[in-house]
Specification:
Elements: H1 41-47, E1 56-57, E2 67-74, H2 78-94, E3 98-106, H3 114-128, E4 133-137, E5 141-143, E6 157-158, E7 162-163, E8 179-183, H4 184-189, H5 203-213, E9 227-230, H6 245-250, H7 252-255, E10 267-273, E11 278-283
Parallel strand pairs: 2-3, 2-4, 3-11, 7-9
Antiparallel strand pairs: 1-3, 4-8, 5-9, 6-8, 10-11
The structure holds 6-aminohexyl-uridine-C1,5'-diphosphate.
Length: 288
């Protein structure tokens, strides 16, 4: 590979060679631990000098094969976010992706709505860059093997197949929560996530149904590399299990066309480009 002797300036990307299919700096297993105190943001910024402008990184010496938005549904998980940034920024850089991190922060104390926040992340991120794919990512999951590359998938991909909390085994074969990735085309085809799952649970199964009813299948990496460590936590107020979820996921086929990206309504309270992530604080009209 022809490696230029200096990083590309804006406008020069076109002349960079494509990044290789297999990034050369992958290390395989990553030793992830939450035993230490999560580093301060200032330290994380100093550790990731090439990440800037809203948590955006591009490989300096080659043209990334994929442009990915990492979308995190979020409320009041400050320490989890710092662990996430600590481990995931270096990993995503070794994967030679052109990526940016969007933290979609639900304003207020109303019922949490993970799926609607992810729709907002999609809608806000495409205003900033022409992302080709979207990794929807719980803040409490940290990847333990960088060979699980967040590249644009041929079919919707379930990334968090193995999680330590579940002994690195799939709890059920149709699980599609935690960390998932879809291309822009795939996400539009399913009309995004439902906006109607308030409280915990069901929105991920509804998305599995959307994928299936749109004629697609989900794919996964092999279990030996689909490995995540979860940061343990208690259930928050406002995220109690949604009692309507079972009924809702029985009706996906009828509801998906009229509940999703095409009916998404929200108000951006603030959008701020921090160095390591873009923070979008959003009013999603949550019931108490
Ligand atoms: N999230 C927040 N804030 C909240 C709730 C959820 O940021 O108040 C986000 C966060 O990205 C999280 C994701 O939504 O990773 C999923 O929510 P969750 O972590 O509550 O869901 P999970 O199924 O845990 O991982 C359910 C509660 C388990 C309680 C176990 C007590 N031992």
């Amino acid at each position: 590979q022809n490696i230029p002797d200096k990083p590309a300036e804006a406008g020069e990307e076109a002349i960079l060679p494509d990044c290789p299919e297999t990034p050369p700096d992958l290390q395989g297993n990553i030793d992830v631990s939450f035993a230490h105190t999560a580093p301060e943001i200032s330290k994380l910024e100093a550790d990731n000098p090439l990440v800037k402008d809203g948590g955006h990184y591009k490989p300096p010496y080659c043209k990334a094969l994929c442009k990915v938005a990492i979308v995190i549904p979020y409320r009041d998980r400050e320490e989890h976010l710092r662990y996430f940034l600590e481990y995931m920024h270096p990993t995503l850089q070794r994967q030679q992706l052109d990526y940016a991190i969007y933290v979609v922060n639900q304003a207020g104390t109303g019922k949490f709505n993970r799926a609607k926040l992810m729709n907002v992340g999609y809608a806000e991120s495409i205003k900033d860059h022409d992302f080709q794919c979207f990794a929807f990512h719980d803040v409490d999951l940290v990847l333990e093997n960088d060979k699980s590359i967040y590249s644009c998938p041929s079919s919707p991909r379930h990334l968090s197949a193995g999680v330590d909390k579940f002994n690195y085994q799939l709890p059920y074969s149709a699980i599609f929560g935690g960390v998932t990735e879809l291309t822009k085309e795939q996400f539009q085809k399913v009309n995004g996530y439902s906006n109607s799952f308030w409280g915990w649970g069901g929105e991920d199964d509804d998305m599995f149904n959307r994928v299936k009813f749109s004629g697609m299948n989900i794919i996964r990496y092999p279990m030996d590399i689909s490995r995540y460590k979860m940061i343990t936590h208690q259930r928050e107020k406002g995220n109690e299990p949604n009692p309507k979820r079972f009924d809702q996921i029985r009706r996906t086929k009828d509801t998906m066309a009229n509940d999703g990206l095409n009916t998404l309504e929200y108000k951006v309270v603030s959008k701020q480009k921090n160095k390591l992530y873009t923070n979008v604080t959003v009013d999603i009209m949550a019931p108490a």
